[in-house]
Amino acid sequence: MAVAERGRSPALLPPVSERLGPLAWLKRNLFSTWYNSLLTILVGYLLYVVLVPFFEWAILNATFFGDSKEACDFDGACWALITSRLGQYLYGLYPVAERWRVNAAFLLLILAMVPLFLPRFRHRLLYACGLVFLYPPVAYLFFAGGVFGLPFVETAQWGGLFLTLVIAGVGITASLPIGVLLALGRRSEMPVIRALCVVFIEVIRGVPLVTILFMASVMLPLFLPPGVTIDKLLRALIGVALFASAYMAEVVRGGLQGIPKGQYEAAMALGLGYWQMMGYVVLPQALRMVIPGIVNTFIGLFKDTALVTIIGLYDLLGMSRFIIQDPKWLGLAAESYLFAGFGFWVFCFAMSRYSMYVEKVLSAGERR
Fold it and tell me: Which residues lie across from 63 on neighbouring strands?
């Protein structure tokens, strides 16, 4: 024991710059040279010029409660618009008496997802697949009603943050598995399968989402038999999911191309079939490598949900525009759009931070 203690290296002290505290950090990072000091002072001045007036407008001189814009002091923001119409921002035109159904459906989803975050929970993949297939019909029964004594609510009344989450959730859930299948199909050795996947991916990626939504909303009904109609929201969901899946396919294909050939050969040497090789060896590594690209596609999809406004669906952004058309709130576009932008930022930032956590857990950054 004594020998071990004598052979142990003494603990090293932190660098002097670290021991000197925040002043040393400021000097090293912000004032290390004369031009760094100049840039720091310039940026600080610009922040002062921009942030101080904004803080006074948004907080100090703001009005938070009121029934119309007349109750607001126009030296500051009129957040009374948000507080008085918060229900519409969240639920759109969904009946007030039935909004508990939306809350119950989302609470059910949160509770159902808890086992997925338990580290010792087995059969996580099987449980997730069951949740993907079973939850959507249950949620639709809550949202639409018409059964078990629940009043029917048309999808035209769905709106606000609620509709944004529905479109983004369906698009994200559907785009990943479809994108994986398209990526595998594009690398398939069967010419027909490979050609179909290539054509689908390139055609979808070659047109903007607005075009696809217009086709689903305006052109598709023209090709349906007389008397046959498809709900507008359902058409938008399918268009968004297919659009996102084409981009997801390219992200996944990049991960598949990054897997060394030896991994395929080792899996085949073990006697694994194609789907076993992909499911147990290749895809886990490929998806881990492209987590940033996958989450980036999810974030882009979440923001693209605002485009459904052009086909008459009032998501969070569309509802923000709809509310300020009320004569009582005319001229308050800044407050309405700032609130909508903040809502989008919260969810996108949360997805970004969670992806960083997943990368750290799976050690995705170890591959160089």
Answer: 78
Instruction: Tell me how long the chain is.
Output: 368
The contacts of residue 60 (CB under 8 Å, 6+ apart) are 76
89, 82 contact by CB (below 8 A)? yes
Neighbours of 104 (CB within 10 A): 12
* Residue listed under structure tokens 């709130």: 329
Q: Which two tokens stand for residue 42?
A: 């310039």
Answer left, alpha or beta for residue 266, where phi above 0 means left and psi between -120 and 50 means alpha.
alpha
The secondary structure of residue 313, as a DSSP letter, is -
Angle at 328 between CA 322 and CA 331, to 5 degrees: 70
| Cα atoms in the 13 Å half-sphere on the side-chain side of 314 | 18
Q: What span, in angstroms and rounded, lies between the C-alpha atoms of 73 and 61?
A: 7
Q: What pLDDT, on a 0 to 100 scale, did the predictor assign at position 347?
A: 93
pLDDT digits (tens, 9 = 90+) for 145-170: 888 888 999 988 999 999 999 999 99
Residues of the chain with pLDDT > 70, as a percent, come to: 93
pLDDT of 158: 92
